[in-house]
Amino acid sequence: MGRTPSRDVEEGLLRAAEQILTEEGPEAITVRKVATCAGVAPMGVYNRFEGKQGLLEALFIRGFQQLQAMVASANGPDAVARLRAGCVKYREFAIAHPEHYRLMFERMHEIEPTERGMLEAFASFDQLVGNVAAARSLRPLGAGSDVDVAQQIWSALHGAVSLELLGIGFAEDPDAAFEAMLDALLAGMEARAEG
């Protein structure tokens, strides 16, 4: 029986770490626990990720890649509708992967991402900037640069999603509340651009 290819071992370790993250939270991730869950020796984690920090960063990067893919899957008849749909996909990602979302946005200081990790995080924001630019090519939206408008949208999205994940929202229907917030945000930005 041959050795398992390195890429397969790495993927197995990441899947094991994601499972622990999802079921128990980031504090439960240890080299030994991930290795045991993946069916490899702890040295396998060190060989592929240089330890717990490297493994957490790999989860951080994977989370941003998954978020970008989900936002990219947003559909709509035009760029404005796709921007709005992408905002909904952002929330859907957070709700579907709350521990991963927290790792990416609330626990970043514990991960201390390398340049590669930060580039992946910035790519997610750049995706929003691109969506804003495309929407603004169709109609006025907000004041300032595309980056300024993207920052305002992301701030509102992140705030709403974080409150929901913390369970401190007061809306009876969180889906409807998010949709209403998004509609008000985009309408307000459009009015501000025209005013």
Describe this structure in words.
The chain is mainly α and 195 residues long. The protein has two domains: 1-50, Arc Repressor Mutant, subunit A, CATH 1.10.10; 53-194, Tetracycline Repressor, domain 2 (Orthogonal Bundle). The chain has ten helices and no strands. It has helices at 6-24, 31-38, 42-49, 52-72, 79-96, 98-105, 108-111, 115-136, 146-166, 174-194. Helix 2 crosses helix 3 (42-49). The protein is elongated, with a radius of gyration of 19 Å. The model has no long low-confidence stretch (mean pLDDT 92).
* Shape-level CATH architecture of the largest domain: Orthogonal Bundle
Could you name the CATH class of the largest domain?
Mainly Alpha
The average pLDDT value, as a whole number, equals 92
Tell me how many strands there are. Answer: 0
Number of domains: 2
Unreliable residue runs: none
Structural class, from secondary structure content? Answer: mainly alpha
Percent of residues in helical segments?
A: over 70%
